[in-house]
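Hey, can you fold this one?
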Amino acid sequence: MNSYRAFSFGALHPLVIVVPIAVVQVAFTFGAAAGQELLHRVNALTIVLALLSAVALSWRRRYPITVLVVVYALLTTYFALKNPYGPVFLSLVVALFNATANGRRLYAWTAGYTAAAVMYTAMVTFRDDAPSSWAGAGAIFAWISLVMGLGELARARRDRAEQAAAAKAEQDKRQASEERLRIAREVHDVLAHHVSLINVQSGVALHLIDSQPEQVREALTAIKQSSKEVLVELRNILGVLRDVDRAAPRHPVASLDQLDALLERMRTAGLPVTLTVEGDRRPVPKGVDAAALRIVQESLTNTYRHAGPTSATVTLSYQPDELRVQVDDDGRGEPGGSAVGTGSGLTGMRQRAEALSGTFEAGARPGGGFRVLATFPTGGEE
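Sure. Predicted structure:
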């Protein structure tokens, strides 16, 4: 849009156009008059009409059609008084261009041709040197059409620039909304996982503090580790929002490289977890990498909190063009349960998968327990 405005008469300060045109029209009118042997026709009224036609352009932004009509009226008077042809047409060029570029299209074209016909009639009526042939009239109207056509091109360019700017603003708004949602999911997953571990381990510590004080140390160690990790992850997530920590990563902080540490943390907290990898383990796109870890993390957190005494199995299946992530437990899931989760955790996992064109299923297993299954397309990327 800025590139358009740099070439638009309507975008310039009024005096940037008015002053040069006024100087040129007044100064060069004398030269035009001398060349046409009409110097005796130049008088005070000639100068006033030349100046007024330029000064009228000062209001071209607010009143483009009115300014066009006023300039036509001044030039009609100018030529009817048998003043010399010359630079006074500059005002008309600017007025015509501006009216079609910034005024109402129908009014601009109507005024442009109608006023031109009136001016041409006055020239033919009051002057002996006016081009009274059809060829002369055609040349004048062709010239006017050319100027107004250039105004239409400027209008079209401006409209396209405005549409592009609006589309970009809408896209930026949508991307900002998606980014806020992504960060909200990250914060939810991090807090839900670590705070759940801290809550359960602190309960264990309180329960065993008198009877088995040696196990309290293990619970407090797990609490300390979870507290440290949640602070680090939250610092990384918030560092993306605040441009204070220059070392903060600019990509999702979660990765399947952290899976072994996650599983070990769950085992330490008291949830036996087994990892099964099918196919050759390979790098996957960053978004899939982060989403896969978060889904495993959220699934194990839900198992740890809600399934009671149980064990879990995490299966990563690397297919040629997709990654399947499956988490099974043998806890209190009931056969025939709904496959559609209603909690925010399940909803967040589903949104993560669908945002990457993947699929998500969650529900009770036929033999008891609960299953979470997410599939992500990887496009065979290495």
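The chain is about 65% helix and 10% strand. Let me know if you want another pass with a different chain boundary.
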